[in-house]
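Two folds, back to back.
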Amino acid sequence: MKLSVVSTLYGSSPHLREFHSRMSKAAAAYTDDYEIVFVNDGSPDDSIDVALDIFQADPHVRVVDLSKNFGHHKAMMTGLSYARGEQVFLIDCDLEEPPETLATFVEEQKKAKADVVYGVQPKRKGAAFERFTGWVYYGIYNALSPEPIPRNLITARLMSGRYVKSLLEHREREMHIAGLWVTTGYKQVPLTIAKASKGSSTYSFARRVSILVSAITAFSNLPLIWIFYLGSTIIALSLLAAAYLVIRVLFFGALLAGWASLFVSIWLLGGITIFCVGLIGIYLSKVFIETKQRPYTVVRALHEHAPE
């Protein structure tokens, strides 16, 4: 198999047929030996029915039907595990990333002699709030992670088979796929792609915050190290404050009056303590989940044509 195209389905019914038509033309222009792998990530609409109709009409199509919604990243990793191509093109099927860019990815990969060509936006799409939260996300993650990820990264990427094989060796249950893309290594080069906007996103603000926390705790131990230094700083300041109060009583015979400062100090230290315990709890919960060794997705059915 020369080329595998992998795409996940979630609320994808309105644009799935157009995506298949355009993607098929782009893939056929590159090679006749290709496949399109659709992964149904528990889509709440009729995406699986549309995908199965396409499957019945096109022998190039395979459909991986997951038993429920496991999340975009896990669905992509599952789709990659079923890809058989020497080259794998990962792309969302919502048509924000044009399928026709496959030719550009192939050309850039040949020119750069790279294992991976990944798409980046020239500037982040969406309204001011979405652009600002994206800027904050990349800023915080890259400041804390030992392996920064490219800003304004998109899903579309062309990967060699050996890179995909190495990528799939990562078996984290709590995963952040952009971090795995980077940490897998190999030669990777960016390609600027203009991404359209469909006006809505399945990623709410709360979901974005959750992804940021999960990503940082999955790839960086700096927050745990900072807890130690934060505690050390508080202890040092407390000792200095205690020494000041003792000196004031011994030499000046006066105590500082005011319960307000005492209450503020208690609330501050209590908040810091709860925050630190909660952060440690997040790390412990990840260890707990990883020790269970559960599969990160469950495949309900695999629809594929018998080999010729």
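---
second:
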Amino acid sequence: MSPFNGFTGRKVRLTPIPGPFFSELLPEIDHLGELKVLLYAFWRLDRMEGAYRCVRRTDFLADERFMQGLASLPESEAQSDRAMEALDDALERLVQRGVLLHVTVLNENGTESCYFLNSPKGRAAVKAVQEGKWRPFETAQVPAELAVERPNIFRLYEENIGPLTPMIAETLADAERTYPADWLEEAVRIAVEKNARSWRYIEAILRSWKEKGRDEQKQNRGDSEKDRRRYIEGEFSDFIEH
């Protein structure tokens, strides 16, 4: 089991869950797969647009990270028969319990299973489908999949560079607004590899990428002696102790 590093201090998007879930459903649900699928459905539906929203069976299957965790399988087996059986079993439990409403819709490839939350809007959507007034495939689906939350710059700094001070925290907050998250992670990683654990060094890398382009810089990086000397004697030499 991988340890959870804790929730970050920055603002994150919250997923609304109806109160009756805690007062009525949570005490009754005793199947882990059923609970996982329901929580995922809440999360997915919240990230969709439009008056009518549903989660298709293929939406669950397309999220490999979710399917892997649902059946407790290695990543390479996320689309295995075992994973799909776990999904179908959980969906059937939720339909039988009355939490989700299931509608089979015809499309160009055959049929598609669509699941709506048993709420006023969900029931209205099912009625619209049954009366031929609305088809789930007429509404563009917003891509969504589970992804690992990137660590913010404050945690990266504390774990790899040193303790935070009020002054450095203000500098880091400005950097987080200025540079993409993957740039910050990569720059910190380079600083650690080069044993140049200082913000001045990291900031120099970021400025260089911003001025000259990151792709060009990445092509020139490697583990060769020439690369090592470029960092030690070249543009970043003022930031390395050697």
